[in-house]
Amino acid sequence: MQRERKGPKMASTATATALIDSDIHSTVPNVEALFPYLPRHWIEHVNQSVFKGASTTYYPPRAPIAARPGSAPPDGPAGSSLALLRSQVLDPLGVEIAILNCLYAIDSLHNPEAAVAFARAVNDWQIAEWLEKDDRLRASIVVPVQLPELAAAEIARVGDHPGFVQVLLPVRSEHPYGSRIHRPLWEAIATQHLVAGIHFGGAPGNPPFPSGWPSYYFEEYAGMAQVFQSQLASIISEGVLDLFPTLRIALLESGFTWLPAFMWRFDKEWRNLRRLVPWVKRAPSEYIREHVRLTVQPLDAPPTWRDMERTIAQIDGDHMLLFATDYPHPHGANPLETLLPHLPDTLARKIRSENARDLYGLA
Length: 363
Ligand code: ZN
Description:
By secondary structure, this protein is of the alpha/beta class. The chain has a single domain (20-360), classed as TIM Barrel (Alpha-Beta Barrel), CATH 3.20.20. The chain has 13 helices and 8 strands. An 8-stranded parallel sheet has the order 1-2-3-4-5-6-7-8, with helices on both faces. Strand 2 (97-100), helix 3 and strand 3 form a beta-alpha-beta unit. Helix 3 packs parallel to helix 4 (148-158) and helix 4 (148-158) runs parallel beside helix 5 (183-191). The chain is globular. Zinc ion binds at residues 23, 25, 101, 199-200, 252-253, 326.
């Protein structure tokens, strides 16, 4: 699963203690921070109307899962300070490389010109304010995912920047990601040898559940694994991975202990119904093991560590899991304390850094 592209040069620390954090969040502090990167038209629009850019967030600001104590600087929201990211994560944990996922909700903007302009601004802001200030950082390209051809154009515009290793796709989407409407997006990701990072959240305007709108954010948060499952079913059933066989997908902040039962059922029904999708040549679990990786935060852990090892064995997943802190979101369990010390050294090393190094083609 080696990538062809390389990141910026840096000293390799491919040792047993190397640590790669595959899910960290950089937050746009306010719309004014994007002004240096926006066309004059949109600056005037923000200054003269009630439109202030994307105002939706996938995490209600006062929800307990939105921010660790101390992760917000005095003048901005959690995740908006590079200095705090350095002092709270990168330096104390000795992180070699961290992948930034900026959850600016471009998918909530229904004006197409605004969606394109603000996606471009966020990417240029990521380059100037984060990637160029710390060579431990890599980032995901933010795209107007609801406009796949324009998303592809944005990937072509910045995809050659060595700091971008991934395209960020909110797991909640207007159409399932396997749908033909998304082909230009997949083609652009494959052409640029980037990873498709499907992350928790999304604001496409449709309900998060197939059965409709839940009453409480708690339901949406706890039930998000269902949405990840639906995207995997769509991508595999529509033949995206046959059409683009080099594609790699990272499921970010999805949990992973739901995966064994999902793969068993998906394989069983494929045996029953594969004549309906003859282009799906292999059992779905084979596509998942080859193309899909998952971050370990949040850790939906069973009660004993023997069970956890068994879960990883059930998905044949020693090559599939990626360490992540999900900073600044708090999840209670810290994988460095509650997961990795309990696993065999070889497996712990793969989760700490080797699987991510392979996935993202990091030197
Ligand atoms: Zn995350």
